[in-house]
Write the structure tokens for this entry.
Amino acid sequence: MKIIFRIHTIQRMFVRGVADADIRYVLENGETIEDYPDDTPYPSRLVLGWRGARPLHIVVADNIEDDQWIVVTVYEPDPNQWEANFRRRKR
């Protein structure tokens, strides 16, 4: 799959110290923890992956027709908002 980075994503990656290699690794090896099938123009999902001890969440839209992952944003999940395994939001 080809990875497409939105301008917003590149800005966030720079500020948050996330490399494009981190994105590819998480997308190829991570776990989809939420699905957003009604997003447009493509369905998207939230992927959790780890780079060493660092958890990362990536929101990615899947453009299956063009064989593309479109990265919407990336962030390190806040432990105050997520359960300890970063798979579920705290209630």
About this structure: The chain has a mean pLDDT of 96. The beta strands are 2-5, 31-36, 44-51, 54-63, 68-75. Residues 2-75 form a domain with the YaeB-like fold fold (CATH 3.30.2310).
